[in-house]
Amino acid sequence: MPYAAFRSIGAYVPSGVLTNHDLEKMVDTSDEWITKRTGIKTRRIAAKDEKTSDMGTKAAEVALKRAGLKADDIDLLVCATISPDYFCMPSTASVIASNLGIKGAMAFDISAACTGFIYVLSIAKAFIESGMKKNALIIGAEKLSAITDYTDRGTCILFGDGAGAAVITSTENKDEAIIDVHTASDGDYADLLMTPNGGSGSVHDDLDKEKAGCYMKMKGNETFKIAVKTLTQDVRDILEANNIHSDEIDHFVPHQANYRIIKAVGDALKLKDEQVVLTVSKYGNTSGASIPMAINEIYEEGKLKKGELMLLDAFGGGLTWGSALVPFAPFS
Ligand code: ACO
Question: Which atom of ligand 1 approaches the CA of 154 most closely?
Answer without folding.
Answer: 8
